[in-house]
Specification:
alpha/beta; BirA Bifunctional Protein, domain 2; Rossmann fold; 2 domains; three-stranded antiparallel beta sheet; elongated; binds histidyl-adenosine monophosphate
C-alpha cells in the first residue's frame, strides 16, 4: 500500500530544524520579555468574517489564499492566515486593551494557500508582536531597535535591511487613490494583468507590482507623500529622527504599501538578498483603525510579524549547523540491574547531566557500539554503581 504523504506546502520540522526553531524561539522570548512583551496564545481557527473584515476583501490573502471551510454547525471557519486579527479579537473579547498600554507576542502556525517554493509555504510559523495604546512613533522606533538587536545577536545584521514608508491616514489615502487611478487609467492597456484588475479593487497595491513596464509608468505617477497632512508627515519625520538617534540604518521606499488593508502611517519591512524571491523576513506597521473596525473603542496599535522559516533559512545559510547535543554519559544496562541503572540515570539528570541509558537490551558489544555512536563523554558499564566515582569521572 502506498504510504500517506504530507500536504503540499506543509512541512515537517525534523529534529535538526526543530532544534533550531526552539533555540531561536528561546532567544526571541528572552529578548521580547526584556522589552516587556507578554505572551498570548490563541486558537488557529477563527470565524471567517474576522479576516474578511480586517485584512480586507480585495487583498490576495482574503481573495485567494485562505483555508476556509464550513464546520458541522454550518459556521464558516478559517485557519488563520495571520495573527493580528485574532489578537485584536481576543483583546476585545477579554477587555485587555481598554485605556492601557499592552504589548503581546507569540509564535504560531499560519496558513495561506500560496504556490509553495523556498521560503514560501502553506503552513508556516510567524513570530507575531502587537502593541496597543501608543499613538506616537517612539513605539515604532523601539520595536525596530529590538529587531535590529535580534539580527545582531544572530549575526544577520549585514544581510538584512530596513525599508520604511508612511501611508498616512485612510482619508489621505482616499484622496491619493483617486489621483493614482486617474493617472493610471490613461495607461490601463499598458499595465500588467494583475495591476489592471487592481485598478478597480486595490489600486495602491499596483505600487509594488513586479512588472517593469508598470513600474516605468509609476515613475511619473502622483506621490502618496504629496497627499499627506502636516500631522502625518511629522509622525514619519519623528520616526526617522528616532531611528537616526538609535543608529538604525533604513531605506525609504515610497512604494512600500504592504499586502493587508489595516495599515496607516508607518509601514516597514526587513528584507534580505539571500532568500531569492521570498526576500521579506519581517513586516509590519501601524494599524490605528482596526480595533474600532472590529467593534472596539478607537485605539492605536502597532505590530509586526516575522516568518520563522525565513529566519531559519537565513541563520542556517550564515552559520552552518551547530553540532547536535551529545550526552555526558551513556549508561549500559543488563536485565538484572535495569531498575537501579534507571535510578542512577535519574540522579545524574537531577544533578544537571545529559544522560542516555541503554534501553531495549542488547549484547555488551552492541550496547558499546550504541554508546560510542552517541558521542557520550563517559560510558558506564552495566555494573558500575559508585555514584561519587561516577561524578568524579564526569567532572574530571
Ligand atoms: P505579512 O507581511 O503578511 O504580515 O507576513 C509577515 C511575514 O510572514 C512575512 O514577512 C514573511 O516572512 C512571513 N510569511 C508570510 N507568508 C508566508 C508564507 N506563505 N510562507 C512563509 N512565510 C510567510 C502579516 O501577517 C501581518 N499580520 C504583520 C503585522 C502584525 N502587522 C501588524 N502586526
Amino acid at each position: 500500500m502506498k504510504s500517506i504523504q504530507s500536504i503540499r506546502g506543509m512541512n515537517d520540522l525534523l529534529p535538526e530544524d526543530a532544534a533550531l526553531f526552539l533555540d531561536l524561539s528561546a532567544q526571541i522570548q528572552a529578548l521580547f520579555e526584556s522589552y516587556q512583551f507578554e505572551p498570548l496564545l490563541l486558537p488557529t481557527l477563527e470565524k471567517t468574517e474576522l479576516f474578511a473584515r480586517s485584512i480586507g476583501d480585495a487583498t490576495d490573502i482574503v481573495e485567494k489564499e485562505m483555508y476556509t471551510f464550513t464546520d458541522r454547525n454550518e459556521d464558516s471557519l478559517t485557519l488563520r492566515p495571520e495573527g493580528t486579527a485574532g489578537v485584536v479579537r481576543a483583546c476585545l473579547e477579554h477587555g485587555l486593551i481598554h485605556n492601557q498600554i499592552r504589548k503581546f507576542w507569540f509564535i504560531g502556525p499560519m496558513f495561506r494557500h500560496e504556490r509553495p517554493q523556498k521560503g514560501r509555504y502553506r503552513q508556516f510559523y510567524q513570530l507575531d508582536a502587537e502593541v496597543f495604546g501608543i499613538a506616537t512613533p517612539d513605539v515604532e522606533a523601539e520595536s525596530l531597535a529590538m529587531l535590529s538587536t535580534l539580527w545582531q545577536n544572530l549575526g544577520l545584521s549585514k544581510h538584512i535591511r530596513l525599508e520604511i514608508n508612511t501611508i498616512g491616514t485612510a482619508e489621505e489615502r482616499k484622496t491619493y487613490r483617486q489621483k493614482l487611478v486617474e493617472y493610471l487609467s490613461q495607461f490601463k492597456d499598458q499595465l500588467d494583468e494583475d495591476s489592471q484588475r487592481r485598478l478597480n479593487t486595490n489600486p495602491l497595491r499596483i505600487l509594488d507590482s513586479k512588472d517593469a513596464q508598470t513600474q516605468a509608468l509609476l515613475n511619473d505617477a502622483p506621490q502618496l507623500q504629496d497627499c499627506l497632512s502636516e500631522v502625518s508627515l511629522k509622525h514619519y519625520h519623528d520616526l526617522k529622527a528616532y531611528l537616526n538617534a538609535l543608529n538604525i540604518p533604513y531605506f525609504e521606499n515610497p512604494k512600500l504599501v504592504r499586502g493587508l488593508d489595516y495599515y496607516c502611517h508607518t509601514v516597514f519591512e526587513w528584507t534580505t538578498d539571500l532568500l531569492g524571491a521570498q526576500a521579506t523576513v519581517c513586516g509590519g506597521g501601524r494599524y490605528d483603525g482596526l480595533v474600532e473596525q472590529l467593534g472596539g473603542r478607537a485605539n492605536t496599535a502597532f505590530g509586526f510579524a516575522m516568518g520563522m522559516e525565513r529566519l531559519m533559512l537565513l541563520v542556517q545559510q550564515l552559520n552552518p549547523a551547530t553540532p547536535k547535543a551529545t550526552p555526558d554519559v551513556y549508561i549500559m544496562t543488563n536485565e538484572d540491574n535495569l531498575a537501579s541503572q534507571l535510578a542512577l540515570a535519574k540522579r545524574l539528570r537531577a544533578d544537571g547531566f545529559q544522560v542516555a541509558v541503554n534501553l531495549g537490551g542488547g549484547s555488551n558489544k552492541s550496547q558499546f557500539r550504541r554508546a560510542e555512536k552517541s558521542g557520550a563523554k563517559v560510558i558506564l558499564e552495566a555494573d558500575v554503581q559508585d555514584y561519587e566515582a561516577i561524578l568524579k569521572r564526569l567532572n574530571g
